[in-house]
């Protein structure tokens, strides 16, 4: 997410609220939504099945089936990410040299 500050626009992770320092590995979703590497790592390990349909903060899809696992950080539970976005973000970060991280989850796709 973004907010305006005196010295410009500040970008921060929608899921933990950490401000971007201009260096950290982050992945942008739609409409300025952002997820940081730490949240991607946490999310990949702790997706859950919910009971109701939900909206994803990153891809902005609405009424996503409860069958698709989701994740939210307890720091900002109003932001929910679908597993597809987590996987996409994980792939993108695995290719980003400065992330210095490789996703071990689904090497085949
Ligand atoms: Zn984060
Ligand atoms: Zn999504």
Main sheet overview: 2 strands, antiparallel
Low-confidence segments, given as residue ranges, are: none
What is the count of distinct domains? 1
Order of helices and strands: EEEEHEEH
Class from helix and strand fractions: alpha+beta
Radius of gyration: 14 Å
Find the count of extended strands (DSSP E, 2+ residues): 6
Strand order of the largest sheet: 1-2
- Identify the overall geometry: globular
**How many distinct helices?**
2
Small-molecule binders here are: zinc ion
The span between the termini is 29 Å
Give helix % range.
10-25%
Strand content: 15-25%
Mean model confidence by pLDDT: 94
Outline the structure in words.
The chain is α+β, with helices and mostly antiparallel strands. The chain has one domain (2-99). Helix content is 20%, strand content 17%. It contains 2 helices and 6 strands. It has helices at residues 37-45, 83-95, and strands spanning 2-5, 8-11, 26-28, 34-36, 70-71, 81-82. The strands form 3 sheets. It has a two-stranded antiparallel ribbon with strand order 1-2. β1 (2-5) and β2 (8-11) form a beta hairpin. The longest helix has 13 residues, at 83-95. The radius of gyration is 14 Å and the shape is globular. The relative contact order is 0.18. One zinc ion (ZN) binds at residues 13, 15-16, 18, 35-36, 38-39. One zinc ion (ZN) binds at residues 56, 58-59, 61, 81-82, 84-85.
Structure described in brief:
This protein is of the alpha+beta class.
Explain the layout of strands and helices.
Blueprint: E1 2-5, E2 8-11, E3 26-28, E4 34-36, H1 37-45, E5 70-71, E6 81-82, H2 83-95
Antiparallel strand pairs: 1-2, 3-4, 5-6
The site of one zinc ion has 8 residues, from strand 6 and helix 2.
